[in-house]
Every structure is written in C-alpha cells, then in structure tokens.
Amino acid sequence: MRRVQLSIIIFLLMFAIRATVAAEAPFVVVLGVAQDAGVPQIGCESPFCQRAWKDASLRRRVASLALVDPAAKKRWLFDATPDFPAQFETLKEVTGDYSNGLAGIFLTHAHIGHYTGLMYLGRESMNAREIKVYAMPRMKSMLETNAPWSQLVGLKNIALEPLAENRGVELGDGLVIEAARVPHRDEFSETVGYWIGSGRKSLAYVPDIDKWQKWELPLDEVVRSNDYVLIDGTFYADGEIARPMSEVPHPFVTETMSLLKDLPPDERTKVFFIHFNHTNPLVQGDREKIREVEKNGFHIAFEGQRFSLR
To answer: Taking a C-beta distance cutoff of 8 angstroms, is the pair 125, 151 a contact?
Structure first.
C-alpha cells in the first residue's frame, strides 16, 4: 500500500514539474490577423462589411504578434497597430500580468497598420517611459525626424534601438530576434520580416511582401528551416478589389499554395496565412475557400493562437 502511495506521489510530482516547465516555456501569441485598416475597413459598405459593423464577432484586429517569456516575466510586441490599446489588454490577460510593463516593440515597416499604434505611448495617452522600439535605419530616422513620432523620442516615451539585417538581437534566456529585408513598397522605411528563435524552435513572421519571386530567400527554404511560418495572406486571389492589384502587390494565397505545393505535408503544415484584407474570403468565413486552404495542408492564423517555442 505504501509503495502504491509513493508511486502516486512521485507521479504527481513529476506531472507538476512538467506542467511548471511547460507553463514557463516562451511562446508567441497572435494578437491580430487583419491588413492595416482592419476588418471591416472604414468606408466599406459591402454586404460583409455591413454585417461586420453590426456583429462584433466578425471584426478582426490588425496583424500583430507578441512574444512572451513567462520565466523572465517579459513580453515584446511585433508591430504597434491602430488596435494597440485593445491588443495590449489582451496581452495582459494572456500573461496574467496586468502591469504596463513591455520589454520592447519590433517594427516591420512604416505602413499605417504597423507603427501608428506608437501614438498611444505618448503623453496624451499612456505617457510611457522609454519603451524600447527596435527599428531599421530608415524606419528609425523617420521616427526621429517626423512629428508626432519625434515627440515620442524627445519626451523619452520611447527609446529607439537600431536594427541591422541578419544581426540577431539577444533578449535573454536563449531568445533571439533577427530581421530580414523583404521587397515591399518602401516609401518611408525598409520592410522586414522577423525570425523569432528560442534555441529549440523558431518562427518566421513575414506579414507584408510584394511577391515571393522578388525575395532573395526561396520561400520553400524558409519553411523548411523554421517550425512555424506566418506569412502574407492579404489577398486570396486576383481581382479581389476594385482597382488594379498591381498598385498594392502582395502574393495571393492561391499563388503561395501553388508555390509550396510540392513540399511534403509535414512542411506545408508549418504555414499559417495572416494579414488578411477585408475582401479576403478567408477572413469573411467563406467555407469553400477555407476548406481549400486546409485541404492543401496549410492553416489560417486566428487571434489568440499560440505557438510554443519549446
């Protein structure tokens, strides 16, 4: 009887240890999946948009990720979106940390959905103190020399941290962030994707790119060399918007699936589409298109989704 009791105690202790280790594993959580202007978009009167304005369950926040290190009690954002206030509250709930602590923000580029949320760190709002903002050279210069962003720098609401392509930023506990340039409409800054690594697993995040063929890195190699790949799914197919789509080039989801169709199933399952325009049938809930993506072995990212880095 005592041996049985001892065995149960040992089992429970081992289970508790495993649970504690798992709970402390760093992870990435999706805070938004929409293109820069959100879902639905301002001015949109399509049948879907009309339903979404009335039904909050159909709305989607702008694409953003958070990296969480529970053991170190630190958290970082990838992009500061127009939905920053709500996303920060969600991050507090996810982490159980209701303080305003934020270890830093990594910016991808200077389009409205990716940096304008910085305004909420200013004295009209949070009045933050030296939140680290990691930015490439042109992005850093744009923030330093253009109002109102320069005021954030001058008042030390943010502290700009320079990024260099392919040079890792060590965050501690084995976490490393690396930026990689991608071809995009670089009117005001460079555009980068990010590699988020823990020493055990890695996640690639490329929410915006013109076309995969323009990138010096073959997409299939990016998939093979990472455990999770969250990539540009802005438009599902050509003809989706009522203007020349060459004005807003993105790889169509159909193009990406075709490009990666020869990868084995265990590689394709790493791919998650994100950054959906409000016209994209995947974000509108088109069951046929969603089934097509899933049938081909790919996934559709959703808000609240977690990716363990252990």
So the answer is: no
Number of structural domains (the chain) is 1
The phi-psi region of residue 239 (left if phi > 0; otherwise alpha if psi is between -120 and 50; otherwise beta) is left
| Measured distance between the N- and C-terminal CA atoms of the chain, rounded to whole angstroms | 38
Q: What are the φ/ψ torsions at residue 278 (nearest 5 degrees)?
A: -65, -15
- Those residues whose C-beta lies under 8 Å from the C-beta of residue 63, and which sit 6 or more positions away, are 32, 33, 34, 35, 79, 81, 113, 207, 274, 275
Joined tokens for residue 54:
């009335």
Reduced to 3 states (helix: H, G, I; strand: E, B; else coil), residue 29 is: strand
3-state secondary structure of 25: coil
Q: 203: domain CATH number?
A: 3.60.15.10
Has residue 9 been placed in a domain? no
pLDDT at 153 exceeding the cut of 60: yes
State the pTM of this model: 0.91
Q: Please give the pLDDT value at position 249.
A: 87
**What single-letter amino acid sits at 83?**
D
Domain-located, residue 243: yes
d(C-alpha 154, C-alpha 151), whole Å: 5
Q: What is the DSSP string of 255-307?
A: HHHHHTTTS-HHHHTTEEEE-B-TT-HHHHT-HHHHHHHHHTT-EE--TT-EE
Kindly report the backbone phi and psi dihedral angles of residue 176, in degrees, each rounded to the nearest multiple of 5, phi listed first: -135, 135
Beta pairing class for 64-69 and 299-300 = unpaired
Using CA atoms, how far apart are residues 159 and 166, in angstroms rounded to an integer?
21
| Contact of 142 with 149, CB cutoff 8 Å | yes
Question: Chain centroid to CA 254: how far?
Answer: 21
The answer on pLDDT for 241 being more than 60 is yes
